[in-house]
Amino acid sequence: xxxxxxxxxxxxxxxxxxxxxxxxxxxxxxxxxxxxxxxxxxxxxxxxxxxxxxxxxxxxxxxxxxxxxxxxxxxxxxxxxxxxxxxxxxxxxxxxxxxxxxxxxxxxxxxxxxxxxxxxxxxxxxxxxxxxxxxxxxxxxxxxxxxxxxxxxxxxxxxxxxxxxxxxxxxxxxxxxxxxxxxxxxxxxxxxxxxxxxxxxxxxxxxxxxxxxxxxxxxxxxxxxxxxxxxxxxxxxxxxxxxxxxxxxxxxxxxxxxxxxxxxxxxxxxxxxxxxxxxxxxxxxxxxxxxxxxxxxxxxxxxxxxxxxxxxxxxxxxxxxxxxxxxxxxxxxxxxxxxxxxxxxxxxxxxxxxxxxxxxxxxxxxxxxxxxxxxxxxxxxxxxxxxxxxxxxxxxxxxxxxxxxxxxxxxxxxxxxxxxxxxxxxxxxxxxxxxxxxxxxxxxxxxxxxxxxxxxxxxxxxxxxxx
Length: 467
Ligand code: SF4
Ligand code: SF4
Description:
By secondary structure, the chain is α/β, with parallel strands linked by helices. Helix content is 36%, strand content 18%.
């Protein structure tokens, strides 16, 4: 009986990206991390010592790179190896991997729990876990840090990864990597940190990668302060880095909604393969409230488009580079069509006493809570006031808004910014062809001061409020 010698692996160093999967796969410890930068690639290939190799082939299976580790052909001669040309050694590479298929998500029922009493950032972190997020990248910044802290405590217990990056720029690039691998990843940040992430968000949009960004907005401009402001509505709705970028922007106003919209954000992010932005505010992030958990949680699968590092997903590529002008225009047309689909299907709003409202107050996040109290007070005084609360700031819920202004004579926009929400309302009206809307008025504050119930009531009644 002849014993067949199993082929040992061979590596052309400049086809190795140094990912280390082969190191983990080798029980014989033949493969070690490299120390020399390959001048052709700038990467550090692994080092292989085949003395104790038994040709098991596990490293070959583990290597995700085309022309990565390959079995040494039986008839190869030393001269062949000097060429370091894999095509000459192994022939033309053919992709024998099966076409990737979706590994579906699984819904898992949850037992009935008593409601939690938690702050907004915690509620969002819990929502992320229930939505299947097991990868967190971030850089601490007040007033969002507690969300990251909770993820740091929970994720290691759930076989997840928590990584504090060196900066927000590093964070967003890690989000790109995790999204590219088809994994549910999130970050918590606050306004100056969000600004730093914008270039990377543009890359993620260009490469059609999912990821959830929770921005607990604080006072600006510049470093401003750590108090609540709605300072990034403009950035999130109109300024997500360079190019024709757009993402769904969700604006919760209670800790319960922080949980609910975080779960929704993961679904939408994967549905459209696009980042989703959650805009909270410093007060909402810190505010404690009753939060009821949903009846189910998710164990996510792996989408077929993921660059997951196994044979099935080997041929997948994510990029935002289209050097040919026609290719880039076509890519833009493709993502713009996707934005149109989001705009049509994903408008969300909450309407409170709007059916007969003659004064329509528009507010979101924490200011919407004061505005709701103001509507109740005004109704008691016989004034037909209503509250329109956009839950998606982009796409602005113009269809629901159109209904809410049916009887309105005045629109009062209540916000903690210098008209960033009002601009979204005006733009949505204009784009919808509503050119003679009711008269606009506003109640605005900045720098950590939020509009108060009394002053909203006074503004609607046309009174000055005592300072
Ligand atoms: S073939 Fe097996 S023993 Fe040889 S290097 Fe690869 S994993 Fe290690
Ligand atoms: S798995 Fe392949 S690409 Fe990754 S380090 Fe090993 S040889 Fe290099």
